[in-house]
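Supplementary notes for students who missed Thursday's class. We covered one full example, reproduced here. Read the sequence, then the structure, then the short commentary at the end.
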Amino acid sequence: MYVLTSGWSSGSVINLGSRRFAQTGSYKDIVYYRLSIVGIAFLAVTALFLVLRPVIEGYMKIGGMYLYVLALFVGYVFYDYASQLLYPGNHDRMQAGIEFAATLTLLLVVAFAVHDLRTYVFTYALVTAVFACVVSMLFFKYFHAQPFRWSAKDFGAVLNYSGWQVIGVLGIYLVNMGTNYMLVAAHISLEQIGLYNFAYRLYSGFSPFFALFGILIPKWINSSVVGIHAVEKKILKIIVALAAMYLIAGFALSAVLQFFEMSRYSGSIRFFFLLFPAFLLTSYVNLLNTVLANTTRFRRAQSGIFLQCGLLILFGFPLVLKFGVDGIIAATTVACAAAAMYFHRLYRETLLQERG
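Structure (token representation):
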């Protein structure tokens, strides 16, 4: 519900907003257009959820939890709306500081006042709503004086940009979640699936760094006269740093598990190290995707994510049937390698196009 409402358009604020701010000193129009898109999608998805409620509750086994699902959904939308709002206007410290304060507040409230998951859901929704209100007031404080006039053409451009992001967002969702479906379909033991998921959660634990560079890279591109031409060198340095952190995390966790005699998780450490090549390739793909999202070839960039997803499915089923969890790791690596080659070529083509 969150992906179909808010997740598919979140990139427009940081990418299009950073470009508009560099050009005009304001990005209020991008925020308003995106807010309109989210509002329309929110009404449509909520209405669909109401209509399909009996089917969803029966299939997902969440009978009686409709209000909690809805509250969590609203909380996610509030958070997503406000989490990037000030970054394009270079109020980075303020945005990060408010988010840290909101996270700390949620942590303290949960630690001292929340005793069950149902209360947590409403607490989360309330904290994110307050967070969104505070960030919105600061946004209006800084940009209320900037003129705004509705433009159907500009709205269409934001809608078009966001619409293409659906391909990438759903592709990433399927890449992250689809492996579990394949493992279950192949009748892999629950223990092996659990060990793999623990490793994959560690593997995915670097996503905050990609979120950080998802904010920084548009600023580097839009505030520099060289645009995307000098970005690849920075990306390679970032990947080297992330690779070192990945290996350190793996060896440190292995030592911790040995110290506490938790040998039952040793399989996860093995899977974690086997995922290392895929991590390097994924880092390259994610960072270059962020770069190309700020060019006229953003559509082809999203197609690259879809290609990665398709290859994972194509290779995943036969390899997991033959080799189990090792097979799904191999399929992930192959898919990431193909995506990395695709993005490298697309980046080079984009450089030649801009130079021409």
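Commentary. Residues 152-185 form the longest helix (34 residues). The mean pLDDT is 88. If anything here is unclear, bring it to office hours.
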